[in-house]
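Milestone 3.1: sequence recovery, worked example.
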């Protein structure tokens, strides 16, 4: 049986939208690495009754409750006194905490104030967890078979306490079994179509291996999660399952785990000793940005011409004024001419071009917002494909760049 955890984030600023709760995301990831399943994430304000209610509900449904926020010494910080109230204990002075604070302040050439010293008041039933980088210690409670952990909301303080103090204790207490995730990354297919394609395979997965569909930004990730007693056995089982399904989905699969599409493109170009240039209109350099985000991309990426205006298309890419007049900038003819032009102008093996209507203005009945033509050109072929990305401007730009990268992936080394 897996260990279940709940993360409780406390603070009005989280509910107002003034502060992003990056703590919960980071903790979820670390707990997963330690085979502890996050069952619930709860965000509440600085309200006494809400905090007490949240603690009670969490205690009844999970094994570990991780709390961040509200541990400061000021009147609006309620977590410590409410934990004492919840457990029915007094607040007591902890000499170790005051020693830690004094040492920290001495190093910074500061004096400990009466307000700082209040941080040494802790609920009587807690185990103090040292905070190496701040004044509010972590607190560990083990009550009625449930572990409660309270930590500061300051991210670097929370991470330090979690890494050095909390995770080792949780691992020691709940070290039974292993959990293994394997990610298969796909592009060019929708979640529903992918589900239909692999339905028989999915229905025959072993009971201890679960499949999740994770659609994001024009891609769909397949996450296989296996639980068991031995990591090597799980890895081997999942490898066999992946091998069985790959013939059906391999044309959509671009990578695994932490692979990024732009990184895979770089590997393909390096492997085939090919160079690339981009001609961008609607993406405005975003495609080049994605390509150059990869370290070492200068080996295969030679540059980009941002042909946002028609004058640049004609003067620097060789697009004919007649094609622009007859077909418009957002057309198959112009996209192909741009791809051929940038390949010629920058003397590369491959040219890729984007031209479209990102919106929110500029659309027509024939060419609505989201209409994009992407063209690919190498020494063997030049072709263009039309896409319709019917959402907002940022969406159209991002999806256009992804589609262009995928076009490169599917055609590098193909005659």
């Amino acid at each position: 049986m897996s260990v279940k955890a709940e993360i409780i984030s406390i603070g009005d600023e989280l509910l107002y939208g003034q502060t992003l709760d990056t703590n919960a995301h980071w903790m979820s990831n670390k707990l997963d690495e330690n085979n502890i399943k996050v069952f619930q994430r709860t965000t509440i304000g600085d309200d006494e009754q809400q905090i007490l209610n949240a603690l009670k509900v969490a205690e009844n449904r999970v094994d570990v409750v991780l709390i961040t926020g509200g541990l400061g010494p000021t009147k609006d910080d309620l977590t410590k006194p409410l934990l004492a109230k919840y457990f029915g204990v007094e607040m007591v002075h902890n000499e170790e905490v005051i020693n830690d604070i004094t040492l920290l302040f001495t190093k910074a050439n500061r004096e400990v104030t009466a307000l700082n010293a209040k941080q040494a008041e802790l609920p009587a039933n807690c185990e103090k967890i040292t905070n190496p980088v701040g004044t509010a210690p972590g607190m560990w409670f083990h009550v009625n078979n449930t572990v409660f952990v309270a930590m500061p909301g300051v991210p670097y303080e929370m991470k330090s306490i979690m890494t050095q103090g909390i995770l080792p204790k949780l691992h020691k207490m709940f070290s039974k079994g292993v959990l293994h995730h394997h990610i298969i990354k796909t592009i060019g297919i929708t979640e529903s179509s992918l589900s239909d394609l692999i339905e028989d395979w999915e229905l025959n997965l072993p009971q201890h291996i679960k499949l999740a569909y994770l659609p994001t930004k024009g891609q769909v990730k397949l996450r296989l999660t296996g639980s068991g007693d031995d990591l090597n056995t799980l890895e081997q089982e999942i490898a066999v399952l992946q091998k069985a399904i790959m013939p059906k989905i391999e044309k959509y699969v671009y990578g695994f785990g932490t692979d990024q599409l732009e990184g895979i493109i770089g590997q393909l170009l390096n492997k085939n000793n090919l160079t690339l240039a981009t001609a961008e209109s609607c993406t405005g350099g975003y495609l080049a940005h994605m390509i150059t985000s990869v370290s070492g991309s200068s080996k295969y990426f030679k540059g980009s011409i941002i042909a946002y205006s028609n004058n640049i298309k004609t003067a620097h890419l060789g697009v004919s004024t007649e094609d622009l007049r007859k077909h418009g900038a957002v057309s198959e003819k112009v996209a192909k001419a741009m791809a051929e032009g940038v390949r010629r102008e920058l003397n590369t093996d491959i040219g890729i071009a984007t031209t479209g209507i990102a919106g929110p203005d500029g659309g027509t009945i024939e060419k609505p917002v989201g209409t994009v033509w992407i063209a690919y050109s190498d020494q063997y072929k030049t072709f263009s494909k039309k896409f319709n990305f019917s959402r907002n401007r940022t969406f159209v730009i991002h999806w256009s760049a992804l589609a262009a990268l995928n076009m490169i992936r599917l055609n590098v080394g193909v005659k």
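The first strand starts at residue 3 and ends at 10. The first helix runs from residue 12 to 16.
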